[in-house]
């Protein structure tokens, strides 16, 4: 059926493993650029900081219409619970800032488990370079909504 959400297919076969590194991509509803200002984007950053009990953030890039998040899952939590918490905190922060009650997130999320640590540096370079590839800035130093644990 065209137009019908198929986010349930994203969960098929999903398995969470403590200590595993995951690359998560969360997309704004209808790809709307909800995080088009520093203050709106900081709503996501604060959510990642509030989720340290569930996951260690290795790097992230908050784009206007989606977010890349590389994390290491902590013990006894699921990937879905971790993303649900981050999305929920972001939504509360964003609504308090904007006084807007429209949908913020597309349902579901995309994830990829890293197979080994060799992929981590390449992946984080990809994530951090997203604003460059999107043409938002000419240097990653000019973009404020990214971070990596190595800095």
UniProtKB/TrEMBL annotation:
The record's annotation in Gene3D superfamilies points to: Transposase IS200-like
Show the InterPro entries listed in the entry: RAYT_transposase, Transposase_17, Transposase_17_sf
Specify one Pfam family: Y1_Tnp
Q: Which domain of life is it from?
A: Bacteria
**Any idea where the Transposase IS200-like domain is?**
17-130
List the PANTHER family hit by this protein, alphabetically: REP-ASSOCIATED TYROSINE TRANSPOSASE
Q: What is the protein name given in its UniProt record?
A: Transposase IS200-like domain-containing protein
Q: Which organism is it from?
A: Alcanivorax xiamenensis
């Amino acid at each position: 059926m065209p137009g019908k959400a198929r986010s349930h297919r994203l969960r098929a076969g999903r398995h969470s493993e403590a200590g595993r590194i995951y690359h998560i991509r969360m997309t704004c509803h209808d790809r709307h650029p909800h995080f088009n200002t520093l203050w709106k984007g900081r709503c996501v950053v604060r959510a990642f900081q509030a989720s340290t009990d569930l996951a260690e953030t290795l790097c992230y890039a908050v784009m206007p219409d989606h977010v890349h998040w590389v994390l290491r899952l902590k013990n006894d939590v699921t990937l879905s619970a971790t993303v649900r918490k981050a999305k929920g905190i972001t939504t509360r922060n964003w609504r308090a800032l904007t006084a807007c009650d429209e949908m913020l997130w597309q349902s579901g999320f995309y994830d990829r488990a890293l197979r080994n640590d060799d992929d981590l540096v390449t992946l984080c370079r990809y994530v951090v370079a997203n604003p460059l590839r999107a043409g938002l800035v000419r240097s990653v130093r000019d973009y404020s909504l990214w971070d990596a644990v190595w800095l």
